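Here comes a specimen:
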Amino acid sequence: MTSDQIPQFVAEILATGCPIYAVNRSIYVIAEFAVPEELSESVSNEVNAICERYGNRSHLQLEIAAYLYSIDHASEETSEILD
């Protein structure tokens, strides 16, 4: 994955109905746990396919988190995401 693919990656994850958040400006989480149980398997399969298609993102962790902050998909506290 390259940095110019970040907006499309995030858009595709969000389009599945699965939230994605930056936490503490340094990491991000794909919050499959927030998806209703009856949709969890299909959403998980979609998210996994997207992640596989984009490949390794570890080198872009900070950039993905920054992008998520820029579009208001962020939290300073992990507990805020879990609510």
Remarks:
- The CA atoms of residues 23 and 77 lie 7 Å apart.
- The radius of gyration is 12 Å.
- Strands lie at 20-23, 27-30, 74-75.
- The chain has a mean pLDDT of 89.
